């Protein structure tokens, strides 16, 4: 009885009652999980020279990561995971504008922290593969583990259009899945359907720029590579690099 009472007291002390704080922590955890699985899929592919993974396995990891992330935070924060989705919810008056910058900051922070976790997880592999040099270009570049980069034939204009169209398809698909007037997705399986949506976009629109479709997913990890030693090159439009994998 004593240990049970002590546990209940500890739970009471740790319980977060502020709704915004609960939503932010849920969103942070969900994005952390999302990026951890997504980037790990890329890291495994890159650092093994595609002997233990390829673009398809990396895309699948990213899609399934979305499913896990939605199950993680869907009941608390709605599992936005993506500033683009949060913006659309604001425009549709389904999410308050004052929460928008808070969610964007939390989503970006979650992606940044998760990038650090992937770097630690694959630290030896990254340094072994890169021959001790962290670069964003060349045959042994490793920046594409974390962020997405254009193929060598893609212009800035085409890259912009690519991301607008890919993100638009994602948002339209999400809104269709959420629309109660449409044929309903079986309750509890919505995250799986969203994962299939993401996977369909990745395997059909991923060749140009790696198909991030999420500003926080790209900027958070890119910022991490900048401060972790890859340098300012990660923010330049340099072609001929690995593209990132979803």
Automatic annotation (TrEMBL):
Q: Isomerase: present as a keyword of the record?
A: no
* Xref: InterPro entries: Aquaporin-like (IPR023271), Aquaporin_3 (IPR023275), MIP (IPR000425), MIP/Aquaporin (IPR050363)
SUPFAM superfamilies from the UniProt entry: Aquaporin-like
Q: What membrane topology was assigned to this protein in its record?
A: Multi-pass membrane protein
Q: Which Pfam families match?
A: MIP
Q: Could you tell me the keywords of this UniProt record? A: Cell membrane, Glycoprotein, Membrane, Repeat, Transmembrane, Transmembrane helix, Transport
Q: Name one GO cellular component term.
A: basolateral plasma membrane
According to UniProt, the reaction catalysed is: glycerol(in) = glycerol(out); H2O(in) = H2O(out)
* Localization of this protein: Cell membrane
Mention one GO molecular function.
urea transmembrane transporter activity
Task: List residues traversing the bilayer.
Answer: 20-39, 59-81, 102-122, 160-177
Family statement drawn from the similarity comment of this UniProt entry: Belongs to the MIP/aquaporin (TC 1.A.8) family.
Protein's recorded name: AQP10 protein
> Which source organism?
Rostratula benghalensis
Q: What is the lineage of its organism?
A: Eukaryota, Metazoa, Chordata, Craniata, Vertebrata
